């Protein structure tokens, strides 16, 4: 057996659920933890503002969220692992059908080997990526380059900003291999479990904030609370994935350093285009703080940070719910009508949710930001409407993005994301002095609509009109 596979390794299959059911399960799990997440983020923002002042709050949050620009650091391995895990359940379902037993058992064994080999390659890849990221962050810190990269010239912040940026990125790097646990849970139809475990992150960050406040920590020490909270959550997901798929992943860690004996499986067909997508999206959509830091003042950056801190948990409800569709689309529907029905159902539900969430954001954002900032923040209605528009556009696109996860469709998405980056950054740079902190947000809404939503709908409509295909022809992990 290859890839260190134990004899008789199997994974308990999970029956496919309806589109509505998986969306409700994942979205409901996110809604369940959202009050705790939102409350934790509100209290963190208030405590940090009281500790460092509004002028430095934006700097702290810029460093704390710098890893959002590096979500590609897993090099697309999570997508390959999730797809391989989803196809493992498909093979188990075929084996349970009782038809062609020898073929079904062979297919199940091959799927287990594929899943193990894919996961093994992913672990090795993320370990290398983590080492490179940590080393690169440390080198930039040693050269004193972080203040310049982040748009700050003040000597008073230079030293502490270098240290905090290195530590924040190091925590993010350590979390990379553990984050594969979320991909395993997602591919196994357990997105709701991953959501609940990831809900540990904000309370952990709040606890660390309280500790730092108690010990009167330096201002930029608060930039570490979010990355450390995410690290704890990633570790919990990895532990849960191991307990769920223990038989299939047994012995993988021992096989990691033994590359010749356990070579793993190729994942480039899925990982490379996903890597391009994951490089482009953060650059296009998470670079707003950097642009504002270069083009506007610190108060504008703080106002943006308050508005974004409210936006991100709300957007996560829809984006995480959409991830629950991964097993359904990754394994491929048996007929075009079912695939089209699943796509349209997800499109309608999540687009409607986006409109509702955007409306709620506009109603409550002013009041919540006033409390978060201890009365010091004053985001404009232009900024709030920009985030509402971005919410609607992103929610309308997210189902299509999950549908198009076959390697050839991922290549199409990669092209769209490259176009997004090429258009978004210059537009954000130009619009920021004109519209203030709302400029890059409006630029994101416009470019996502033109570069992702519209072309994605055309391709998805054509894909779902195609004749039936077998699931193994749809996606190759």
Structure description:
The chain is mainly α. It has one domain. The protein contains 21 helices and no strands. The longest helix is centred in the N-terminal third of the chain and has 42 residues, at 101-142. Residues 7-15, 102-107 and 468-477 have low confidence and may be disordered. This is Polysaccharide biosynthesis protein.
Question: What are the key terms here?
Answer:
477 residues, mainly alpha, 77% helix, globular, disordered C terminus
Specify the biggest β-sheet: none
Give the end-to-end Cα distance, rounded to a whole number of Å. Answer: 19 Å
Structural class: mainly alpha
Query: What's the total number of strands?
Result: 0
Count of alpha/pi helices: 21
How many domains make up the 3D coordinates?
A: 1
Unreliable residue stretches: 7-15, 102-107, 468-477
What sort of overall outline do the alpha carbons produce when their principal axes are compared? globular
Order of helices and strands: HHHHHHHHHHHHHHHHHHHHH
Helix content: over 70%
Strand content is under 5%
- Name the average pLDDT: 85
Tell me the radius of gyration: 22 Å
């Amino acid at each position: 057996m290859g890839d260190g596979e134990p004899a008789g390794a199997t994974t308990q299959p999970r029956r496919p659920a309806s589109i509505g059911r998986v969306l409700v399960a994942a979205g409901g799990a996110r809604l369940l933890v959202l009050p705790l997440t939102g409350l934790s983020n509100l209290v963190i923002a208030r405590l940090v503002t009281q500790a460092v002042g509004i002028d430095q709050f934006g700097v702290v949050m810029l460093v704390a969220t710098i890893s959002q620009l590096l979500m590609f650091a897993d090099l697309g391995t999570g997508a390959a692992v999730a797809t391989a895990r989803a196809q493992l359940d498909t093979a188990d379902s075929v084996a349970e059908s009782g038809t062609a037993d020898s073929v079904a058992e062979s297919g199940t064994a091959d799927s287990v080997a594929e899943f193990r080999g894919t996961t093994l390659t992913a672990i090795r890849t993320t370990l290398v990526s983590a080492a490179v990221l940590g080393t690169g962050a440390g080198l930039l810190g040693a050269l004193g380059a972080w203040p310049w990269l982040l748009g700050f010239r003040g000597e008073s912040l230079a030293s502490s900003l270098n240290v905090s940026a290195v530590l924040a990125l190091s925590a993010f790097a350590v979390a990379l291999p553990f984050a594969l646990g979320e991909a395993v849970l997602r591919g196994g139809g357990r997105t709701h479990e991953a959501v609940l475990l990831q809900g540990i992150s904000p309370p952990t960050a709040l606890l660390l904030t309280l500790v730092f406040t108690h010990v009167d920590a330096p201002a930029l020490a608060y930039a570490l609370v979010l990355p450390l909270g995410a690290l704890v959550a990633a570790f919990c997901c990895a532990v849960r994935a191991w307990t769920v798929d223990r038989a299939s992943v047994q012995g993988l860690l021992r096989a990691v350093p033994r590359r010749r004996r356990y070579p793993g499986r190729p994942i480039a067909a899925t990982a490379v285009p996903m890597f391009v997508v994951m490089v482009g999206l953060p650059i296009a959509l998470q670079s707003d703080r950097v642009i504002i830091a270069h083009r506007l003042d610190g108060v504008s950056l703080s106002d943006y940070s308050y508005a974004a801190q409210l936006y991100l948990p709300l957007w996560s409800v829809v984006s995480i719910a959409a991830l629950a569709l991964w097993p359904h689309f990754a394994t491929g529907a048996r007929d075009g009508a079912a695939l089209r029905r699943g796509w349209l159902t997800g499109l309608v539900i999540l687009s409607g949710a986006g409109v509702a969430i955007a409306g709620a954001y506009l109603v409550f954002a002013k009041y919540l930001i006033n409390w978060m900032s201890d009365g010091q923040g004053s985001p404009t209605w232009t900024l709030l409407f920009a985030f509402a528009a971005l919410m609607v556009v992103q929610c309308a696109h997210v189902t299509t993005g999950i549908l198009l996860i076959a390697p050839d469709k991922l290549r199409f998405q990669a092209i769209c994301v490259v176009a997004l980056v090429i258009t978004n950054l210059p537009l954000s740079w130009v619009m920021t002095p004109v519209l203030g902190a709302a400029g890059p947000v409006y630029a994101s809404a416009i470019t996502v609509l033109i570069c992702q939503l519209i072309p994605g709908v055309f391709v998805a409509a054509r894909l779902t009109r195609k004749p039936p295909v077998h699931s193994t022809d749809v996606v190759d992990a």
